[in-house]
Predict the 3D structure of the following.
Amino acid sequence: MIGVVGGGIAGLAAAYRLQQRGHEVEVFEASEQLGGLAATYETAGDPVEQYYHHLSKSEGTILELAAELGVDVEWRYKSDAFYVDGRIYPMDKPWEILAYPYLSLYDTFRLGMLVSEIDVRGGRPRFDTYDDLEDFEDVPIREFLLEHTTRGVYEYFWEPLLDAKFGSRKADVSAAWLLGRVKFRGERDLLRGEQLGYVEGGFGRLLEALIEAVGRENITTGARVTELDASDGAVDSLTVETDDGTATRDVDAAIVAAMPNVLEDLTGYPCKIDFQGTVCGVLSLEQSLTDTYWLNLIDDAPFGVLIEHTNFIPEQRYGGEHLYYLASYVQEYDEQLWQLDDDEVEQLWLDGVADLFPHFDRESVNWMKIARNPRTAPVYERGYLDMVVPYDLSEEVAEDVYYAGMASRAQYPERSLDGAIEAGYACANLIE
Ligand SMILES: Cc1cc2nc3c(=O)[nH]c(=O)nc-3n(C[C@H](O)[C@H](O)[C@H](O)COP(=O)(O)OP(=O)(O)OC[C@H]3O[C@@H](n4cnc5c(N)ncnc54)[C@H](O)[C@@H]3O)c2cc1C
């Protein structure tokens, strides 16, 4: 039997692929709910993800898996905007970006060239400068943007996005991450912008289909793996704690599909990648506040981003509830936000919504739920690829130990469901 530690999408995908290859599998999930960061809340209609999720057309692995499991993915045009000084500036179409008053015509041209991956430094266009991301792995992002675009592009376009995503760690992020993100984007229609994907009925439907395919009898929830015994140079058992007590399960191989601190606790393998936490609220209102899906807040606000989910997926799917995500990444656990309890976060953030939108009516709040997790995204700092955890840990830990968690190669340059599935498959494919 192969033991899989973690019932997030990476662990479930690993189990699914192992079974296809003829192996017996058992998935152990510490919490009562499967899905990890892709777990959902109930609404008046379809369930909604606790943390915002969408797909891009370049993410082939998850799209293939959805098709294999008979789960439909729908594609919808997204709407992005910047909120500055009480005004919302749409930023999807070329003429909207041209109309953004904080960028000059020349700034917009340089931004357009960079996102089209054309290097126009020196007045001569070059099309291959950005082909090899590793060339930019050690280049600080600010230095890169000032050299390859303009100060205006840095200060009024990228810097606010970097503040929201990496906060006090923004100076550590590599230019390779930014270029990876630029390449990662999906197809763009000049007139209508970019399409994003969403599983019809929510990502919970994909999880359900995957759980059914793996078989509930092969998955144990409320089962925390506390030890991995590899004292003879190869893994031979996992110790699992449940409400019924502690049990030892013999295994032929083990895949750790959880954050690298779990791998370190189980095997001693140290991963140097720093992770950031996230506090993420889902707010259900009776009213719509904007016409935008993804609102980047350039003004000071107590949260980093406001996502009006029901401007992407219609509110009719949620029994008419207008759903919003409010989220902030957390770099240090002594930050004020991380110290607040859920009620305090809710009050702070609702006050923030009232400051941004004078027409916000507190009476229209149906409910708000806060999720928080101390490790939700790597800090993609310079030299990141040297710190990635290999799939096969036979040399570093012991024979038959594999790693499919967020510190693996497939989760670069951005962590995603697609990357998690790819990591799960990669480990499963290595097991004979
Ligand atoms: C705010 C936010 C926004 C995101 N947006 C997107 C997006 O738009 N598109 C996208 O594709 N992806 C997005 N992601 C990323 C995506 O959610 C993750 O990449 C993916 O869910 C990671 O899956 P995983 O299985 O590797 O890890 P996890 O989901 O973390 O699963 C690991 C599981 O292991 C369990 N576990 C831990 N320790 C043990 C133990 N000792 N024993 C047993 N079980 C254990 C945990 O309980 C957990 O269920 C987002 C994530 C966040 C936080």
